[in-house]
Design goal:
Structural class: alpha/beta
Strand content: 15-25%
Order of helices and strands: EHHEHEHEHEHEHHEEHHHEEHEEEH
Number of helices: 13
Oligomer: single chain
Strand order of the largest sheet: 2-8-7-6-5
Number of strands: 13
CATH superfamily of the largest domain: Type I PLP-dependent aspartate aminotransferase-like (Major domain)
Shape: globular
Distance between the termini: 22 Å
CATH architecture of the largest domain: 3-Layer(aba) Sandwich
């Protein structure tokens, strides 16, 4: 079975798992005056993550949702307005910060332009109208089909945010895929954001965790909020050790995901009668459009599963997402495309 439901399905390999046995452990919840815990492996992971993103400090978090929510709540108070894209992961699925019974923040939505990037002029206008002091970006953008925000656009948004005295938080769950596509580094992309979150449990292949990176002061406050929200971990080095391995060994490998996604795209584009596909593939995500196929996403996925391909409907009756990741081979990618073509011919 070829499983393209999500890159959260990556599995740690033996060398990654072996790092746990040698990890130096301690109580990460017992912190010093800087907020650093006593787990040496976690501290090493945080230092490495800060270096890679070009930030002063980092905090190891249990999940990306937790890290994004903590970052936003560290910036904001109940009742504050937050600029967020209308299909951004933070708004659609990480709802804690916008729930009336919890975070009680107010979303102010912007849209992606024809290039699937935020429009700096719209953000400028919305900041003026709303008085918001926080702009949330997603790079790469999951719901849009893995599209990336390039450095030129990020620089323009940075200037707009500075004009209004606004903080920029970047949801970089798949940050390193974006950097690979844009042929740049994570630190180059992160220089335009005040804080950034990235996951180690997606394409990078580690089992658990995400990193929140920012200034020393911001991370210290975020640690306090992490404890308040119940996110403190104890001997978390058992999770941090595989994450270190992922950062040291699996970043360059992400280009394979993009290449495999491109193989599927090239096999499908212009060759399907009824199934639509996004106009280009930039990273490891491919969106199929069934709006003219006469079939709903749920049934489409059931047919594909019987042929040996697992996919999932994506927030719509007529959209299906495929995600490439570590463990999916070139042969798998070719076969996945063949199955989609087979289904298209049968419709």
């Amino acid at each position: 079975m070829i499983d393209l439901r999500s890159d959260t399905l990556t599995m740690p390999d033996l060398p990654m798992l072996e790092t746990i046995l040698a990890a130096k452990l301690g109580d990460d919840g017992r912190t010093d005056s800087r907020g650093r815990g006593e787990d040496a492996t976690v501290n090493r992971l945080e230092d490495l993550s800060a270096e890679i993103t070009g930030k002063e400090a980092a905090v190891f978090m249990p999940t990306g949702t937790f890290a994004n929510s903590t970052a936003i709540m560290t910036c904001c108070h109940a009742g504050d307005k937050v600029l967020v894209e209308e299909e951004q992961h933070i708004l659609l699925t990480e709802k804690f910060v916008f729930e009336k019974d919890y975070g009680r923040l107010i979303p102010v939505c912007y849209r992606l332009d024809h290039k699937h990037m935020p429009d700096p002029e719209e953000i400028d206008r919305l900041l003026s109208e709303s008085g918001s002091k926080l702009v949330c970006l997603e790079n790469s953008h999951n719901s849009a089909g893995g599209y990336c925000i390039d450095c030129s656009t990020l620089e323009k948004i940075r200037k707009v945010a500075d004009k209004h005295g606004a903080w920029i938080h970047m949801d970089g769950a798949r940050l390193f895929h974006a950097a690979a596509y844009l042929d740049t580094t994570a630190s180059q992309l992160c220089q335009y954001a005040d804080s950034v979150m990235f996951c180690v449990s997606k394409g990078l292949g580690a089992p658990i965790g995400s990193l929140l990176c920012s200034t020393e002061d911001f991370c210290k406050k975020a640690r306090e909020n992490r404890k308040l929200f119940g996110g403190v971990m104890r001997q978390a080095g058992v999770a941090a050790a595989p994450a270190i391995y992922a950062l040291e060994n699996n970043i360059e490998r992400l280009r394979e995901d993009i290449e495999n996604a491109s193989v599927i795209y090239d096999m499908l584009k212009g060759k399907m009668k009824k199934i639509g596909i996004q106009e280009e593939v930039q990273t490891n995500i491919i969106m199929l459009d069934l709006s003219k196929a006469g079939i709903y996403a749920e049934e489409f996925c059931e047919i594909a599963e019987k042929k040996g391909l697992l996919m999932r409907p994506f927030r719509s009756l007529v959209k299906v997402r495929m995600v490439l990741y570590k463990g999916i081979t070139r042969q798998d990618a070719v076969r996945a495309a063949e199955i989609v073509l087979e289904i298209d011919r049968s419709l």
